Each structure stands twice: as C-alpha cells, then as structure tokens.
Amino acid sequence: MTNNQSTDLLFEISHPGRRCHRLPECDVPAREGLVPKDSLADAPPPLPELGEIDLIRHFVNLSKRNMSIDTNFYPLGSCTMKYNPKRHERMAALPGLANLHPLQSDESCQGMLAMLWSMQNILAEIAGLDAVSLQPAAGAQGELTALLVAEAYYRDRKEHARKRVLIPDSAHGTNPASAAIAGFDTVSIKSTDKGLVDLADLRSKLDEKTAVFMITNPNTIGLFESQIGEITKLIHDAGGLVYLDGANMNAIVGVTRPGDFGADMMHYNVHKTFTGPHGAGGPGSGPIAVRANLAPFLPTPIVVKSPSAPTPLPQGARGEWYALDFNRPKTIGRVRSFFGNVGILLRGYCYIRTLGARGLREMTENAVLNANYLLALVQHALDVPNGNRCMHEFVASAARLKRSKRISAMEIAKRLLDFGYHAPTIYFPLVVPEALMIEPTETESKETLDAFAATLLKIIDEDADFLRDAPHTTPISRPNETRAFKEPILRWKA
Question: In the prediction, which pLDDT does 403 show?
Fold first, then answer.
C-alpha cells in the first residue's frame, strides 16, 4: 500500500460515507465553496513515496550528527544548557493540554488558565515582586518588555526627561540593544578590577535623566554584586528604577530574591532557571516580574481569578474560575501573539512543582557547588582573574597561555569538540581577555566534571600547532565564520 492509499483509507475510517478531498475527483459536498475553483490544484502534489524505515534511518542518522544536552556535556556559560526532565515532556504532551487552541474560550481551557495563574504567582513569589506577565517569548524580549513598561511608567508620570539607561560594561549584549529599541540612550558603567560595579563611576553618571539601571546579579563573571543594596539605593534616590537581568537566577533561587535587594523589575529565562528544551534560537520564554507601581503597564492579557463565573458551573469545574483580563487601560499592549510560549511555561511549572521550595534551593546550591568544584580543578592551569570563588559560573582566561604557548581560547574551545564536549562560551564578557566562560549547572555529576577538567588540562599541554587545526574529528573543522555570517547557506546543496 502506498502512502497516498494509506492516507485515503485513514480518512475513510474517520469520515464514514465521505471520500478523501485530497484527490481532485473526490466529491465532498460539505467542503464545496471553501476554496475558489480557480485556486484548486489540477492534480495531487508530487510527493515522494518512501518506506518508513528509509525515513527513520535518514532522521536518526541526522540526529547522530547533532550535539545536544541529551548526548553531550554543555559547559556553556551564560547560555545555560541543563538537562530537561523527560517526565515534564510527557506532562506537556498530555492531550488535554497539548491539543488546546489559543482561540478557545476561557470556559473550555480552565485547566490551562489555572496553571498559568499559578505560574504567575509562583514567579512573583520567587522574585519578591508583585505582578508577572508571562507573555514575552524569550529573555531578550523580556528585557525589552520591561523597559517598555518603564518607559510607559515615566510617560504616565510626565517625567519625559528620563531617557538614560545605565548598563555595566560586563552586561549581556542584549541589554544595550533592548534599551535602544525601547527608545532609551545607553550609558556604560565601568567595572572594578574585582569584576564588580564601580560605584564611583555609577555616582558620576547619575542625574535627573536616569531612567533605569540594568544589572545582572550574579553578574556575567559569575560574581554576586556584594554592593547591591548600596547600588539600588543610589538609583532609587536619583528617581530611577532598577532592572535585574534574570539570566543568572539559577544561582540565587530560594536563597535571595531580587525584590528584596532592591530590584523593581526583572525577567526570567525559563529554560535556564526551570528547564525547557532550548537551542538554535528557540523556543524560549521570558516572563517579567514587576513591583505594584509598574503592574498597570504590563502587557495584556493577564490571567486572573474571575468573580463572574458562569452559573451553573460547567461539568468538572471546581468552583474557581479563571479568565484572561484585557481591561487594563495603561497597558503597553501585546508584545507577542496570544498568551506567551505556553508549552515552555508548562514545563517550567512542572519543574517547580516537582522540586518544591526546598528542592529549588537545593538546585541553586548544587549549581554553585558544581561551578566552584570545577573552578578548583582547573585554576592552577588557567587564570581566573576575579578570584577563586564564584556563583553558578566562572570566567577563566587563556591570556597567559596565549603569551607563553600561543594557545588561545578559540584553540581550547575547538579542541574540546574532539572529546565530545560542547565548547564553553568564549571571548565574553569583554572585560576578560581570552575569556572562557564555564558553567556546569546543577544537573551534572562529579564524574562528568572530573572528566571534563582532565580533558581541559590535557588540551592545555598539547602542541600549539596541533591545536590550531582542531577539531580533527568533526565533519566541518573551521569554517570561515565571518563569511558564514554574511553569506549563510540556508538550503541543502547536493
């Protein structure tokens, strides 16, 4: 039986008395008029006839060429890739959740709305803030959304002069990009030789034009800003708002809360803090949390418990009624279609409910422990400019190796691929020369960390000329990265 015959048979089983409309000779009166006759195809599309085993082998062999968290260790600092529990994938795939349509009525998706309402409140509690929008589709869009909320807040207060966003020089590159897109001017704040915010430089740049100070805490060097209380007081005394880049929340969840140390708004990277499949640009979810004074400006809709439940309640309803609230006069409006990346939010919700409050704190403690353990294993061979302790990640430098042995961060990163490890983030943050940003996450075992450290030390002792040709085992060794960026090949060429 061909694929087409099989499709026809399934259609006839599921639609008794009707023939498949795929073929031009089919006559299905119920569908007549849906498509103008002059727009109908003259013949079926020339689909290839393939055996299932040929198709399976093709895609399985392609998957073997892919590097993923399920197959390889990802010490990818800043862009954390940690294990995603498979049970949460099964939960997210439950038909009653996965088969919902975003245009369904509130009445028909109360279970999903209840989950989203609960997620809003959980994220607010973890942040120590008052209100949450689940709508932003990624961490970077969360940054932009929060800054648009800040802009609307100042506009509502008629403080039109507040157009400056202050950003540490160690920040993620998305910070100044988000500020510029939101219509702000950006001002860079220097770091000290210890990798923390230079308070003197910050004070010198505060004025009546200051709108927001964007800070990543712990910062991209893997250090907690010990001066955070003084920093937030300086910003608030100047009439500004403090934004926390929550990319590194996996280092502080359950230990401290951004709202408690002075942040007014923040975003989460759900995949980094609470797990979710992520890579190749998506999927993502970047909810934002804000203080009460900023809540009126959040994107719509917000999930609320509704006092106007239908009477009688539909069968299966438990007495609580949830609805999407669009009636928010000061809102900045939608920043994404529908209600956010619900599938990723659902996985994050499962992770949070699986671990509970105590488990989330243990997650944080293990992330910090793993990073410090790995740091201790390699710091005698790689310089770590900002101390021998870190939070969830640390930034080593190959600058001394480059001077003495002509081994750069790039050489080390490329050679790691030969041993089955994803390379760490390199050349970021820019304040560390020949940077290697390494983050093991809490989900890796001691055995994995030991093996990675041993490999890293072995690579450092290898011949420099041999390293410059690495990787030696991958299908592609060293592509011209500049050309690949400017002239990407977006289709397969035989």
Answer: 95
Helix (H, G, I), strand (E, B) or coil at 94: coil
Say which residues have a Cβ less than 8 Å from residue 174's Cβ, sequence separation at least 6. 139, 140, 143
Regarding the domain with residue range 358-484, which homologous superfamily does it belong to in the CATH classification? Aspartate Aminotransferase, domain 1 (3.90.1150.10)
Tens-digit pLDDT profile for residues 249-277: 999 999 999 999 999 999 999 999 999 88
Beta strands in 152-252 (DSSP E): 164-168, 185-189, 210-216, 241-245
Give the right CATH number for 88-309+317-352 from 3.40.630.30, 3.40.640.10, 3.30.450.40, 3.40.50.150: 3.40.640.10
Tokens of 311: 């009477």
Confidence of residue 453 (pLDDT cuts 50, 70, 90): very high
The token pair that represents 41 in the structure block: 């195809």
The predicted model gives 333-357 an average pLDDT of 93
Cis peptide before 24 (omega within 30 of 0): no
Question: Which pTM does this prediction carry?
Answer: 0.86
Q: How far apart are CA 400 and CA 131, in angstroms?
A: 47
Q: Can you say whether the dihedral through the CA atoms of 349, 352, 353, 354 is positive or negative? A: positive
Per the listing, tokens 């956010």 go with 340
Degrees (nearest 5) of the Cα angle 80, 82, 87?
145
Of 79, 170, 172, the C-alpha closest to 422 is 79
Element (H, E) at 304: strand 302-305
Read off the pLDDT of each residue in 100-127 and give the average, rounded to a whole number.
Answer: 94
Q: What is the pLDDT of residues 285-299, one digit of tens each?
A: 999 999 999 999 999
Measure CA of the first residue to CA of the last residue in the chain; give whole Å: 30
pLDDT band at 77 (very low <50, low <70, confident <90, very high): confident
Query: Do β-strands 265-267 and 241-245 pair in parallel, antiparallel, or remain unpaired?
Result: parallel
Distance of alpha carbon 469 from alpha carbon 472, whole angstroms: 7
Give the integer Cα–Cα distance in Å for 110 and 116: 10
